[in-house]
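Limitations

Structures in this collection are predictions, not experimental determinations, and the ligand pose is part of the prediction. Treat each record accordingly. The example that follows, with 2-acetamido-2-deoxy-beta-D-glucopyranose as the small molecule, is included so readers can see exactly what is and is not provided: the inputs are given verbatim, and the output is the predicted complex.
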Amino acid sequence: MSTSSNITLIMLYLIPLIILSCTKLAFATNFNRDFHILWGNDRGTILNNGKVLMLSLDEHSGSGFQSHSAYIFTRIDVQIKLISGNSAGTVTAFYLGSEGDKRDEIDIEFLGNLTGDPYTLHTNVYTKGEGSREQQFHLWFDPTSSFHTIYVDGKPIRVFRNLESIGVPYMNDVPMKMYATLWNGDQWATRGGTIKTNWTEAPFKAWFRNYKGRGCVWLNGNQSDCSLGRSKTVKHDWYKQKELDLSSQEMLKWVQRNYMVHNYCNDHNRFPNGLPLECAH
Ligand SMILES: *[C@@H]1O[C@H](CO)[C@@H](O)[C@H](O)[C@H]1NC(C)=O
Ligand SMILES: *[C@@H]1O[C@H](CO)[C@@H](O)[C@H](O)[C@H]1NC(C)=O
Ligand SMILES: *[C@@H]1O[C@H](CO)[C@@H](O)[C@H](O)[C@H]1NC(C)=O
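Predicted complex:
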């Protein structure tokens, strides 16, 4: 597929809440229309006529939603407000994942922390079932004080290039659904699992709003149809983008230089037989 290398795959960029313009509102999509609850029963709910999705986590369960549609390439904008106060042990995730084995997956997970200690933004990329590509960041703002926008494929914190030419599988032929989940990860999430979730403060809640999915929807096992919402004809603005523009590249460097706290590509202990191929690029 000729567009396979177009999307400097994801990752995300977070900026403080932006006032939405009318044009953007026109594209706003609806959680009620596009998502269904996957687990957690009524711990997850959709509010305000589909505008807000709330997840909660208590001692018995977390909660999760899944999109109806699967996408082959997509841009997703969503605003997330994370658990405030003591969120240690919790994981709030927004990710794309394919179904079946040999999964493709693009993970964006916010690892909670004790009050006053920073959240960690944990990212990973799986291609054809192969993961172990973690990069972690601290944030340059307080993600609990208000909603923040995540651009998946916008101004980036991470780029995963198509390096199929050197034998690194890429996620360009299996559609992925969107997921929003909140769960207990206290086995590993906070300071390597040494700090556990404090259930006296449950239920924990995270909110998502102003979600906009502009993706190439997978139709009947056919190649993607890069349509805007229900229209079958409009191409997306991001679709032809092959590289980040210069200011985005600068932003990427700034984030990685100042806020990256872990990069698998520097983790020689983990890969004693050599770093993954893509790390040289
Ligand atoms: C929690 O805070 C500690 C201390 O500042 C920091 O080292 C760690 O990266 C933070 N995040 C997580 C998820 O542990
Ligand atoms: C859990 O939270 C409660 C209420 O904030 C606090 O009193 C208690 O000390 C905390 N427990 C631990 C193990 O930190
Ligand atoms: C692919 O789309 C064509 C029409 O464009 C349709 O006839 C065909 O059934 C589709 N293929 C599958 C596997 O559904």
